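#struct-help
A.M.: can someone run this one for me? Single chain, 267 residues.
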Amino acid sequence: MAQVKINRTMLNYQLDGPPRGETVMLSNSLASDLGMWKYQVHALVDAGYRVLRYDNRGHGKSAASLGPYSLELLTEDALALMDYLELDKIHFCGLSLGGMVGQMLGAFHSDRLISLALCATGSQISLPDSEWKERIKAARINGMEALAEGTLDRWFTKTGREHLREDVAKIRKSIISTSVEGYSGCVAAIRAMDLREIIRGISSPTLIIVGAKDQGTPVSASEFIHKRISESSLKVIPDAAHFVNMEQHEMFNDCLITFLGENKIIK
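D.P.: on it. C-alpha cells below:
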C-alpha cells in the first residue's frame, strides 16, 4: 500500500497487476476499506487489468479530515488520485458510496472514463434523517462497534454470514476501525445527495449490479438508475445482499470482467 497527500488530505491506495494494463479503479462503501475488493483483485489481474484500490476519505488508512464532506469533495479526491498516478482514462467501479462517486464522475468527468460500473448504490437514499442521526449519535457515544451488527445484517444475507465467516469477521473489523469523523463526514455527503436528474448526463458505457436481497440500496434503486442512463445494462444477482461483490463474487466477477472486455480501448 502507498499513501499520498492530495486535495488537502492523505489518501491510502494500492496498485496491483501489469503496469501497461487498462486500469480498473475500485471505490469502497461507507464504513469499509479497500480490503472489501479482495475477491476482485486476482480475477481482474488474471484478466490483464491493472487494479487501483483506494480508501475513501475518512476510511481505512486514509486521513479523516474534519467533516462534513460532500460528494463533490469525494469525487475530487478520486480525480486527484488519478492525476497523481498519471491515469488519463480508467474503468471505474464503485459500490454503495463508491457508486455515488462513480455517478458524479460519469455525469461530470466522462472524458476520464473508459467505462463505469455502479454496484449496490442509489441516486438518492431515502433513509429518514432521524435514522442517520441515531447512527451518528451511537457511533460518537459508543464507537463504530455500536453499528457493526446492524451493518453486517444489511450487508450480507443470513446464509452469506454463515458461509463467509472469515470474510465477515474482517469486514466487521473494517467497520469498527472506521474513523467516526470519517463516517460522519461521508454520511453528510450521502444525506445531501440527489443525483436523480444529474445521472441523465452519463454517456459512458455503464454496468449496474445489485444483489436481489439488498436492503439499503434495493433493486428498485438500480432499476431507476438504469432507466436514466441510456448506455447502461442492469444485472440483478440472486442470493446476495449489499456486499454482492463478496457474497456472490464469482457471478459478480464474471459479469464485471465480461463488461470490461466489451468496453476496452481500441488501439
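A.M.: thanks! The mean pLDDT is 97.
D.P.: also worth noting: The chain has one domain: 2-262.
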